[in-house]
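Students often ask what a holo structure prediction actually looks like on paper. The answer is less mysterious than it sounds. You provide the chain, you provide the ligand, and the output is a string of discrete structure tokens encoding the 3D arrangement of the protein together with adenosine-5'-triphosphate.
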Amino acid sequence: PHQFAVVGLGRFGMVVARTLAERGHDVLGLDRDEGPVQEAREVVTHAIQADLTDEAVLRELGVAEVDAAVVAIGDDVEASIFVTALLVEAGVPHVAARANSHLHGHILRRVGATRIIYPEQESGAALAQHLRAPDVTDYFALGAGIGVARLNAPRAWIGRTLDEVRQSPPNPSLVLAIQRGEETIAEPAPGEQVRDGDVLVLLCPDNNLDEIPCEYP
Amino acid sequence: PHQFAVVGLGRFGMVVARTLAERGHDVLGLDRDEGPVQEAREVVTHAIQADLTDEAVLRELGVAEVDAAVVAIGDDVEASIFVTALLVEAGVPHVAARANSHLHGHILRRVGATRIIYPEQESGAALAQHLRAPDVTDYFALGAGIGVARLNAPRAWIGRTLDEVRQSPPNPSLVLAIQRGEETIAEPAPGEQVRDGDVLVLLCPDNNLDEIPCEYP
Ligand SMILES: Nc1ncnc2c1ncn2[C@@H]1O[C@H](COP(=O)(O)OP(=O)(O)OP(=O)(O)O)[C@@H](O)[C@H]1O
Ligand SMILES: Nc1ncnc2c1ncn2[C@@H]1O[C@H](COP(=O)(O)OP(=O)(O)OP(=O)(O)O)[C@@H](O)[C@H]1O
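The corresponding structure tokens follow.
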């Protein structure tokens, strides 16, 4: 397990902190307000109320010892930039920071952030992916025009074998798994038949996703 | 192609609108402010300045004819709820809405939204996934504890065959693809050797991701 610091315990920071802590990592949660710190206390290793734009505080708390830090401050752009710069200067090897705009993100990189997150843009792109292929419950682009799609078995495929499915739009190159009720059949045989209620995971050309027979008229 | 309406052209709404329009779908972008409407004009089919809490306006603009609508209003919770309710009552079959909190999301569902998006939580979870396995550049959970991971070939795997890789942590069950420079080798042979700079896409048990040999000390 590794050590992480999360500065800013709003909705974004709290989820980062909680997820890492649940996976067994050491998480130091920091926020300038009492409320978020109290809430974080139940999920992280240590939660401390502090203003991280104060360099003395940062040193005192030993924040520089972590493997990676997350600057999850949203609205206060100045604080976001200052805290990022201080963490980088203190020697934290990886600093991920959330940005409000491309210029803000550019500046964060200039002061040494190693990864920039744009929450609204990321979830907007994921929603658009869902809307254009609503039966595709997840999509994962692999680059070079191929991706992995998870989809509810379209009505038109029920009773077909996987070999037959490979020949109909969107012509997946491989069915990786079938989720059937509680069971997951990884690397199913070509003769396996699709049943109503199956969830299929396919390796599939990205451009063809819109060709999956779907619920829009 | 389908018809979509996106109400609210902030960072989230704009990305949804742009992505769908780029994929060839008909996108009607709506915002109460001039600025976002102007910006959207370059990327969507139609961009109109309007206050969508006004039921008469909604009817006039024919927004009810779309296949799906997105309520991308962030801060104004009242407007988000009212616009969602109006779109549902007007007969739009799928209404996706962004929520600021779980209670807000619950209310949106009660007024008929078919999908709720929490941008901060979604990107927070994605960042946590990245931090716990930093060489994994993407991860896609398939449920039942398996997922698809894309990762930079760890130093320890260079020169090994895919068969050997399958036997070392995190014991992937299948290497789906190798991205090597400009080329993507889908379904590579078991004897294929990993080269420096390769990006591997694996079907892999989720709990083992932390075992990938990685850059943290
Ligand atoms: N200088 C600082 N030191 C420590 N914490 C800070 C500092 N400045 C802001 N924060 C904290 O960062 C957190 C997130 O900031 P933001 O203003 O984006 O709130 P939010 O909108 O609740 O966040 P989210 O969008 O993640 O829900 C807040 O809880 C705030 O108290
Ligand atoms: N009643 C309404 N009718 C139409 N548009 C609206 C209405 N209320 C708000 N909007 C628009 O919704 C957009 C997004 O709202 P929000 O207040 O979240 O702005 P934002 O913070 O810029 O958004 P984002 O977080 O997506 O970047 C704004 O451009 C706003 O003008």
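The radius of gyration of chain A is 22 Å.
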